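Weekly structure sync - notes
Attendees: PM, LS, DV (DV joined late)
Agenda: review two folding runs queued last week.

Item 1: First target. Sequence and structure tokens pasted below for the record.
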Amino acid sequence: MSQGWMIEADLYNTDFGDTTCEGQRSRGYSSEPNDDDQWTPFRLLDADGEVYFTGRSADIGKDAEFAFSPLDYFGSKFGCVTLEYWSEGKWVEL
């Protein structure tokens, strides 16, 4: 079973030329998903609705503690306050 999350695009640090967070993974991240349907695209936004990071997670809809972990990890450091995930053709706030 796949688990964890990974940042696939770092839009925050691209703007400022800092070290990128692309490729940052959660502990226990499984890089070889058994089924692509297990992975849910997500994005992290600041209070103004600007997207800072996009990624994929195998934890959305399974356990709130793990589903929110990308926001917990990046929120305080970069000012992200919202995690949205892709569901049925639109972004939905978790």
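Item 2: Second target, run right after the first with the same settings.
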Amino acid sequence: MQAIEGDMDVMIKYFDELNDLGAQLIQHVDGDEDSTKTVNSQLHSCQDRWDNLVQRMEHCSKQVSVTEAAACEIVRIIRLHDFSEGFRRTLLNSGKSRPDIGNRQLDFEDSTQS
């Protein structure tokens, strides 16, 4: 996407140059109404196509951003799931379904009674 945005920056410069040259051309054919209308029409057509392209690029950029955010969230959920599964397997492989807190409490109670 960054490469496309870089290309768009270059194209903006070319587009601005085209508009400047079109304005100069209109000044040179100022007396010829048909030529002036033709150049104006072509410049407007080019402007409309350019605006359409920019709008489509902005739309695509937003879609990429949303898709990228969704993909990051999916990766986060998968990693969290993998971590929980790994932790659960560790507990199961150690033969304990939960940490053994009961014996510690008894040990503590025994040491306080002595």
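Discussion on item 2: The chain has a mean pLDDT of 79.
Action: LS to circulate a short write-up before next sync.
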